[in-house]
Amino acid sequence: MPDDVRVRISRVCVSALLAFVAGACGGDGGALEAESRLVIKLSSSRSATSLRMRADSPHFSASAACAAAPIIASLTLPACQGADTISDQEIDKASGMANEATLSRRIDDLAADSMLGRGPGQRGDTLTVAYLEREMARIGLSPASKNGFRQPVTLFRTRATGRASFRANGLTVALDTAAIVLAATAPGDFSTLDAPVVLVGFGIIAPEHDWDDYRHIDLRGKVALILDGEPGSVSRKRFGTRGYTSPHGNVILKARHALARGAAAVIFIRLGSDAVHRARRLRLQDQELTGDVPEITPESPITLHLASSAGELLAQAAGTTLSAWRVAANDASTGPRELPLRLDASIHTEARRFVSHNLVGVIRGSDPALRNECVVYLAHWDAYGIGPAVRGDSIYNGALDDAAGVSEMLHIAEVVRALPRAPRRTMVFVATTAEERGMRGAEAYAARPVCPLPRTALAIGMDWSWTWGLTDTLVSNGIGYSTVDSLAARVATRLGKTFAPGLGEYWLLSDHAALALRGVPAWFGGLDGEVTGKPKGWALRQLALTRTHGPDDDRKPTWDLSGAVFEVKFLAELGIRAAESATRPVWTVESEFKRASEAARGEATPPIRRRQDRRAWGRVHGFPPSMARSNDPTWRPHQCTWARDSRRCRTVSRVTLRDLDDISVHQLRNAGGRVLQGAAPRPERRAR
Ligand SMILES: [Zn+2]
Fold it and tell me: Which of 140, 149, 225, 659 is the most exposed place for a label (fewest CB within 10 A)?
């Protein structure tokens, strides 16, 4: 807490102040002792009275505070007439305007066939951006920049071709090519020859669970083989002990860990059906959209996704079974293991550059001291546009995913506008592009935010909405990671809901993750549980039957938007309270979110074991201390300025050059136009 605690008096603060003093009187003097000086500033609309107490002065004691309580109370009550904290009643009054008709109209508009599925770079892009611009202006949001609501986002439409084969003891492992997805990456050619394959279990680093699948391993010139899921998802013993899964199963996060250790390629053995795997091929290999320079390569230069059937064959070629690998991966004592397998792979990615837009609208904060801090809402306007026809329909409307979320977000902006005054901190509403293609719009926002990320108090992600009616429960998918939960629990309880953990594997699956991984405390959650008036388990069945990402994600006549209206009220209040509060949410458990937050704020971090390990690793392998220290999960091995034809890396920034290790310098030389020959077991990049 800061030295000065200024309690601005309002109806709300009377009870808070009395509770505070009562707490001190009750013998819990910790709060008072923790302060070197306590200033309670009492203000009314016309006059202000300050009562200063020095905790370290002989005149101050808890008993003095108790004696002063009636005086303070008598001073505060009249002062409260000029209330200047947004009260519960004022929030209720404003959110009372939330209604199904408004949500419904915008969902219908955005998901209409005339919007052509809102595909970035397609005609639907232009139509959607124009629509959102009009709506944001109509709501009374201010444009985020002098150029208006539009924030340009450079994207690439990519297509990958290539091949990958494995050898065990010199013999080729026969795998069905349909079972291997080669993920498109940066434009150009990459190859790796005769690279040894290292099994790193689930590929997870989770300091809060004291879990590290990598240990000290140097993966340069090697291939990281990673299993889908997380320990608890198999044994229900470890990460699952609290009854839910964690964010650590996220493949982007896993790829980053492998990449940070120098892996030449990353292979995932994926769970899921063949149909899911076919969809993965369509998205990752055949029509990936990838984004903003210079961060075009979020994953390893060579990333393969294997169907579990191919994973099984690979395990057999290595003399074991896939389930044995999974069992071993569940054991914390299993370290990385080099397998008797070698990978040959080459990949060629073509890319076409285009510009799409985020729409960014702002409600400027009312407090001169706090308005340069922000609360940010994010919902993605993009869907899959026009795609292959399914039963005669080629428009991928994205009604639930995420016309519904954008509609909720715009409605929240209206609720905030209906308050008697703007919240203290600035509220930012970002309708992002290309979330479906790896949060590209959110990444672009994170690179050019309205207020710097260390001054962003909270990011609220909104993807899908609850279209099955009112329930009794509200869930947090990232539960346990930050104090956002306690704020959310208070709001949920006030609004009559049970607060519960959600599914951790969803936690990083939408735009807020781009900010969370850079240290911004984030919220992602919503209604869940049993629907009032329906049989037990009904909502869960509806959820299981729900399909998105295809032409059948239309607006359904059966939707009941009463739950979505509730989510508008809840998320509006969550944001308003975060924007009003004297304190900001913080990451609590030791996690990469917390580390990113500390790094972003330039705070000294108490030394912990993993961090020391990372430094040692940096030293041993010649990484500059700045990089070993930075712990930056967004670090990329190559950062390019793209040539005009966007086919090759033209220059690499000086900063990057200084920070690169020798493998990347090798790539850099290639990027400069000189093709290095040889069968080096490492990715190669040739200028084109
Ligand atoms: Zn979505």
Answer: 140
End-to-end CA gap in the chain: 56
Task: Name the amino acid, one letter, at 453.
Answer: L
**Which of the four pLDDT bands, split at 50, 70 and 90, describes residue 506?**
confident
CB 504 within 8 A of CB 244: yes
Q: Note whether 448 and 442 are within 8 A (CB).
A: no
Does the pTM of the predicted model rise above 0.70? no
Q: How confident is the model at residue 603 (pLDDT cuts 50, 70, 90)?
A: low
The CATH class of 88-148+364-596 is alpha beta
| Cα 131 to ligand 1 centroid, rounded to whole Å | 19
* Residue in 516, 500, 497, 498 with CA at minimum distance from that of residue 508: 516
- Does the structure show a pLDDT above 90 at 489? yes
Query: What separation in Å is there between the alpha carbon of 428 and the centre of ligand 1?
Result: 19
Helix-strand-coil split of the chain, %, nearest 5:
40, 25, 40
- Cα(535)–Cα(143) distance, rounded to whole angstroms? 46
- Could you tell me the residue ranges of all domains in the chain? 11-82, 88-148+364-596, 157-351
CA of 499 to the centre of ligand 1 (A): 23
- In angstroms, the CA 299 to CA 638 distance is 11
Q: Which of 594, 647, 604 is nearest to 629 (CA)?
A: 604
Residue 414 Cα to ligand 1 middle (Å): 22
- As a whole number of angstroms, the distance between CA 117 and CA 685 comes to 35
Instruction: Look at residue 279 and tell me whether its pLDDT is greater than 60.
Output: yes
Q: Which one, of 386, 406, 385, lies nearest residue 105 by Cα?
A: 406
The candidate with the shortest Cα–Cα distance to 331, out of 457, 216, 231, 476, is 231
Supply φ then ψ for residue 451, to 5 degrees: -125, 150
Residue 28 has what pLDDT? Answer: 28
Q: Distance between CA atoms of 620 and 631, rounded to whole angstroms?
A: 16
CATH topology of domain 157-351: Glucose Oxidase; domain 1 (3.50.30)
pLDDT tier at 307, thresholds 50, 70, 90: very high
pLDDT of residue 443: 87
Q: Is the pLDDT of residue 381 over 90?
A: yes
